[in-house]
Amino acid sequence: MPLTLGELVADPHLGLTLLTSTVPISAPILWSHVSELADPTPWLEGGELVMTLGLGLPTRPAERDAYVRRLAKRGVVGLAVDTGIVLDEVPPEIIASGERHQLPVLRIPAPTPFIAISRAVVAALTADAIDAMGQVAADQERVASAALRSGGAGVVRVLSAVLHADVALLDGRGEVIDAAGSHVNRIQGRVLERLGPRLNRRPGSFVHVYADSTLTVQAFVGEGSDPYLLALGSAAPFSAHERLVVAHAVTLLGLLARTPARIAVVEGHLRRAVARSLLVEGGTCEPDLARALGFDQGARVVVVHCSADTESLAQALADRLIEALPGATLRAQLPDGAAVVSAAGVGLTTTSLEMILASVGPRRGGRVAVGLSRPMPLAAAGPALSQARSASRIAALQGRRVVAYADLAPIDSLLCAQPSEATKALVDTVLGRLISHDAASGTKLVDTVEAFLATNGHAEATSAALGIHRHTLKQRLTRAQALLGRDLDDATVRANVWLALRARALESSGPLTEEGDDHRAEDPSTVPVT
Q1: Which domains does the chain have, with CATH numbers?
Q2: pLDDT for 519
Q3: Following DSSP, what letter does each residue of 384-407 receive, concatenated?
Q4: Which residue has better confidence, 11 or 283?
Q5: How far apart are CA 482 and CA 220, in angstroms?
Q6: Per-residue pLDDT averaged across 119-137, rounded?
Q7: Mean pLDDT of 31-44
Q8: How many whole angstroms separate alpha carbon 101 and alpha carbon 81?
C-alpha cells in the first residue's frame, strides 16, 4: 500500500509535525510535489502531498484561506510547509484554514530537506508497485494454469475469483459459453443491450460504468475468425494491474479458441492415463512425459485426498484446489472421493488448505474431509495417496476439515492403514468382554481402564480423573483384569489394551475403511479416473 500521511508523520527521521488536530491523516500519498505557485492546482491530479517554502503563499488571510480551499477541493492529501528558509513558523491562518477545509497541514523542520520526504514517498510507491506486479504475476500464473487444466471454463472461474467479479464468456450470438458469479444474466443482458446487432460483426472492447457496477467487455476472435466476448461485472472499474490480468486472460482465451478441440481432448486422455498409472495401478511416468506435463525430474509432489458426503462435493473440492495451486497437477476420481497430485504443493499446510477450501464446503453444505500426504517423488504418488487417504479418514472421524499425514500420531497412522475387519477383530479380542459387561451391567469398566492407562497407572490420578474413591477404583480394576484375563501391570498388556482402546475410539465415529476397501487389491479397470 502507498504511504499514508499518518505513517509519514510517524517517521522519526523526518521530524514532521502535524499542526491540524481534527483532520484525518489516513489518506494514501500518491505523489509528492514541490510548488511555490500561488495556485498550483492546475498541475495537480489529487492525492499529492504539496510541499512549499512559502514563497508563493498569499499574505492576506482571505487569500490564504482561498489557497487552502483550492488544494482541498483538488484532492490534495496534505500541505507541508518548510520552516527553515523563508518562514520561521507556519502562518496560523494556514493552520486554521486547514482545519476548516479538512486539509492536513504539516510543519517541516529546518534540517529536513524536501528530497528526504519525496524519497520516503517514492520508496513506498515503488514497494507497492513491486508487490502489485508480484500479485499480477501470481494471478496470471493461476489463470494460465487454469487454462492448461480446464480450458476456457477454468479461465473464467479463476478470473472471477481473482478479480472478485462476475465473468461471462459469450459467443458471437451473445450466448453464454462459460460463466462464474451470481449476476451473469445481468451481464449478458447489458452486453446485448449495448452491442445489439454488432455482436456478430467483431465488436470492439469497451468499459461502461453503471450506477451499481462497472461492465468491462473485451472482444477477441477464435478459429475461423468467430467473434467472442469476455464480459466482466465488477463493483468498481479495474485498476491498471487488474487490467493486466484481464488482458492476459483474453490472450489465453484467444489461443484456446484457435486450438483444435481434439488437442485438448487428447491431452485430457493423456493426463487421465498418467493419473491412473501413478495413483491406481502403481505404475511410473517416463521422465520426458512427466516434464511435458509440468513435473520436473526429481521434483517432489504432495497428494491431497478429498472426501465428502457427496461425490459432487468431493469433485468441487478438487476443482477448487486445482484452481488455487500454481504449477502442474493431476486429478483422479476415486471410489472414495478425489485425489489431486500437485508439484507446487510441497509447501502446503493444513492452514493454507483450509483457506483454499473454505470457499467450497460451507457454501455447498455437507461434511468434507481432506488429507494431505508428505512430500514424495512423483514415482511414489501411489504411497502418497495412501498417506493422504489415512489423513482424510482421521479428519472425517474427528470432525475436522483438514488433516496432514505428518501430524498423525503413529498409532493412528498404523490403525488407519489396516482393513476394517482387522481393527474390529483387535477390539473384539482384547476388549470384547469388557464392552459386553458394561452394556449388560451399566458399569464403566472400559472408561476406567482407559483412564488408568492415560495416567500411566497412577491410582490417585486415575481416581481424581474419574471422580471416584480409590477403593472403588481398585474394585473396578480387579473386575476389569478378571474379564480381560490380563494383568495390567504388564507393559506388553498395557500396550495391547491401549492399542485396542485407540482403535475403538477411531471406529466409534465410523469405520476406518469401507467394507472390502483394500486399495492394494483394487481392480484398476473398475476405478474411474478423471
Answers
A1: 5-112 (3.40.1390.20), 136-259 (3.30.450.40), 278-408 (3.30.70.270), 420-507 (1.10.10.2840)
A2: 37
A3: HHHHHHHHHHHHHHHT-SEEEGGG
A4: 11
A5: 81
A6: 85
A7: 92
A8: 17
